[in-house]
Predict the structure of Protein TAPETUM DETERMINANT 1-like.
Amino acid sequence: MGQHSVQRTAVIATVSFFFFLGLLAVLAGLDGTGTLVSLSLGFDKGTNNTLPSPHRKLLRRATEMVEPNRIWGDKCSKSDIVINQGPTAPLPSGIPTYTVEIMNMCVSGCDISGIHLRCGWFSSARLINPKVFKRLRYNDCLVNDGRPLINGGTISFQYANTFLYPLSVSSVVCV
């Protein structure tokens, strides 16, 4: 090994050492001056400070109990319907397939009927039972033939197309 190779190896080792030392300091919570930093939950101890710290903006305070998209006194809302979809095994012809689950997650125990979804020009190379899911017109698909989806209930189907259709709730009727 030449002297140049030894110097290069020493420089790489030194830089790596300081990099990992800095990484370890960050993981341990040191702020660079040797002081241990603790993360707060946004409130100063011993004060009546109710403003969250700027680094915690994504966390909600425990005092916030807001339900999105719900008008006070409403039994249910569109946000109680949760749609999950993901890829499944393709058809023998190679067309991708997707499984859709539509769930009633109403916390007040309500049944929801008349579930309409925004679905674009939804179509499928695999036949879907129209009592489960059907497109009525552009961007309007009906779930469960308009019948109630019971609280905690799930309805699912598979469709086949070259791409996944974005599906979102457009309207519901609380039963």
